[in-house]
Specification:
Aminopeptidase, 24% strand, peptidoglycan synthesis, 308 residues, alpha+beta, acyltransferase, eight-stranded mixed beta sheet
């Protein structure tokens, strides 16, 4: 297995900077505003002004920050929160009055699979135990089914698997309406993959969305029966090949255990170990940054809103 720890990867476009992501979050009251240089700003009305978040954008310079602040002031932003590119020069943010936030809203450590590699090269990167698990699942008759722009019944079937896994592993699962919203926003760039055991029973599912050549892992799960048969490994392997065939260049496996944020990632050890078997490039993101643009928020932040 070849896991490469990196903090200086070339910029990989993120779907969270797309119009499709803005269309999805509109169901929660957010709107996406783009700067003249195509930086996506998410804005949501709030009691003390608008909430603003900018997630995984390209590297920002001084002029970008100035335009962002102008837009945010027009939107009566209470604060501006930026989760920057891994390559961002933090001094640009500090010079503009931003301070480090220790409360991220997106995963702070992740793994990218380079889908531009050949199938043979991708296979070589998988760990010995990962390859064994895939072969075992194949020997026991596991089969995979793929869906582009999945229909309502497909989403419901996947959700039942996700719900089963969430209850077993005790992690938060968005409501079914969230999955409908994502598929509606991403359309042909929304993907689901199912895995069946040798008895043709659905035992695992994964959901991805994509834009700008990058796919993001949203949710995955396997039933207790599927976990016993290692079908999750076959599911992930075939998902990688499917997304490669769909023309994507990168797959963001979306979240690994990060000791810098123990409260945020404390239950991620198990699926971090699973993902690492696929030999991608591990990326540690920068800390989030925040700037309070409202005098009231600046005052409150010193007392009760430090969690921002």
């Amino acid at each position: 297995m070849e896991n490469i720890e990196s903090t200086e990867v070339s910029f990989i476009p993120d779907p969270r900077q797309s119009k499709k992501w803005g269309d999805y979050l509109a169901i929660y009251g957010w709107k996406m505003i783009f700067t003249s240089k195509d930086v996506g700003i998410l804005v949501k009305p709030f009691l003390l002004g608008s909430l603003v978040k900018i997630q995984r954008c390209r590297v920002l310079d001084k002029s970008d920050i100035e335009e962002i602040e102008k837009i945010c002031l027009e939107q009566k932003a209470a604060f501006i929160k930026i989760e920057p590119s891994v390559s961002q020069n933090e001094q640009v943010l500090l010079n503009a009055g931003f301070v480090v936030s220790r409360f991220p809203q997106t995963p702070t450590k992740t793994m990218y699979i380079n889908l531009q590699l050949s199938e043979e090269e991708l296979w070589k990167k998988i760990s010995k135990s990962g390859k064994y698990a895939i072969r075992r699942a194949q020997r026991e008759g596991a089969t995979v089914e793929t869906f582009t722009y999945p229909k309502e019944d497909t989403i419901k079937k996947a959700f039942s698997v996700f719900k089963n896994t969430a209850q077993t592993k005790k992690f938060y699962l968005p409501p079914l309406s969230d999955y409908f919203g994502r598929v509606k926003a991403f359309k042909e760039s929304a993907y689901m993959v199912f895995v069946y055991d040798g008895e043709k029973e659905l035992v695992g599912a994964q959901f991805f969305v994509a834009d700008k050549g990058t796919g993001v892992f949203v949710t995955g799960g396997t039933t207790s029966k599927g976990r016993g048969q290692n079908t999750g490994y076959e599911l992930m392997w075939k998902s990688i090949l499917y997304l490669k065939k769909c023309g994507l260049m990168y797959l963001d496996l979306e979240g690994l255990d990060d000791p810098r944020f123990p409260g945020f990632t404390k239950n991620w050890g198990g699926f971090s170990h699973f993902k690492e078997k696929f030999g991608g490039e591990i990326v540690t993101q920068q800390f989030p940054y925040i700037k309070y643009t409202s005098a009231t928020m600046r005052l409150l932040s010193k007392w009760s809103l430090t969690s921002l």
